[in-house]
Amino acid sequence: xxxxxxxxxPEPPKPPVKLGNGIVLDLNxxxxxxxxxxxxxxxxxxxxxxxxxxxxxxxxxLIFQLGKWGYNVVKTKQxxxxxxxxxxxxxxxxxxxxxxxxxxxxGFASLTTAVSDYELLMHDVRKYKEYLDYFKxxxxxxxxxxxxxxxxxxxxxxxxxxxxxxxxxxxxAVFVDQVDAHTGEGISMKTIAVRWPTIITDFMSLAEDYDxxxxxxxxxxxxxxxxxxxxxATKCKLFREWLTYFYSTVKERYTRLMSMAEARxxxxxxxxxxxxxxxxxxxxxxxxxxxxxxxxxxxxxxxDSQAISMDSETIWAWRPFISPDPFRPPRDVxxxxxxxxxxxxxxxxxxxxxKTEEERKKNREEIIKAIKRLExxxxxxxALPAIPCVDRILVALARQIEYxxxxxxxxxVGLIYDKIKELSGKFVPPDLAKPTAAGIKWPFSPYYIFVxxxxxxxxxxxxxxxxxEDIWIEPLETYNSTQNVILGRMLEVxxxxxxxxxxxxxxxxxxxxxxxDIIGMDDIGKVDYPEIFDGEKKEEKIDLKLPPEPLNxxxxxxxxxxxxxxxxxxxxxxxxxxxxxxxLMSERMSKMMQLGPxxxxxxxxxYLKRAAGVPGAEPKIWI
Length: 623
Fold this sequence. Notes:
The structure is a single chain. The chain is α+β, with helices and mostly antiparallel strands. It has 2 domains: 6-83 and 306-612, no CATH class; 98-281, no CATH class. It has 18 helices and 14 strands.
């Protein structure tokens, strides 16, 4: 699981997180580096019981209401378990899983057949393409011969005739082996060779398709018998007629085979695309054995005698807020910043993966290359309220996500840019003439209200036939989170989507996994045989030097090192506070910074209580 940082104080310091790729992450934030704190009063548990459908309606209403209040709402986890005693639901679930499994088997069978047909068609296409290449050489040689004859250039005429002879040579061999050989005993050149051993060689060495035996005797000049020359003249005539017929046949078959092969290739893509949602739905129905085990610890759970179904999900929601500060400075941020100002080069500075120094150096170079390629393509980064966007905390979260969900560090560079751009699009820009995203516009603030709910929905069928539905929400928490933590949450949501998609593509054969490496279908040959598939690959020249850091960044790095050494001896202090986020925690945290998440916790709990009909629920709603 990805661990998110806490601000210390007031919480005790977290121990470092050790990843399996040689990285040790410090997830403790000093004042100014960020906030990820939940008020003590904004942590709770709700357990509400309804008639069947009441709890589901309440949660759906809350999810839609959060969207109306301007929150981004996502589901990060989901699982389901049904006891066999709940016959109707259990059978429907098992039947649905069985149907999906049958669809997958039928889809894979169709896909395998389509691939096999495509390979057979492409084999024939390659054969006829080879024939067309021979005919192309003949046509080119004929044109060159015509031009040389017009110019009466003897040397070019001789060269063109020799080229035409070489172009026809292979087709003469095809005629001898595949056409003339089947004309019968005593007629084909292979059987006549018993009488004239050089007849096939003489036929292959003819520069033109002569009709007159005397011309053949003159062309060969080796004193061949006239009877052989007569047979060769006949074979030349047959070869010329066959060549005309064969040419039109090859063109027709090549066109038809290419059309069929392209249709098969498109059908392969369609089969794969149709299988993707089937596999995704199949994987969402979790294995009952693995899902049902932990539930046996609950006193009310009777898997052998009670009809019960249970599904769990984790919901995240976030929206920025502005603290009630009368002396809040005005917005003074450009619409775009450079990659250095956005802090992208911190990805090559903090927590670079690798067990050895050589591995870390190589990974650092790959990350710098990825950043500079992206910088060359995008030029600038959309501005967010807090600059730099990519700081030490976000890099620590990114490294955890890379390890947890098996995402390459170079791919993470692009994902971070995409999430920054997505987050930037939610704010009202200073220039109102620019287009903005639809929906409620967010206030331009680096501080967010983050809502986390783990919801367990239990449906129990009582012996008297009654159905009850219980909604257990634990925990229900609201946080005050800064921009870097929210970007980390967005990255984890995207990583979950990538992992789910990768599992589907792996089953379809579009990707393969080798340990921690994910290899695309088109890159398998490049990985196994780079000398063959890459050829002479031109190495892209990229300057691997990091841009010089500004003075304030060097001061912050020096202050961070001092704080890390002090923490080792039990002193938790920071000098030269980082300027990005709130620094005066003791003075402002409880009175200003925690007002937003505290009020939102009350808003959500009162909404749920009123929707559940809890007596005494206050109608006042804070948003």
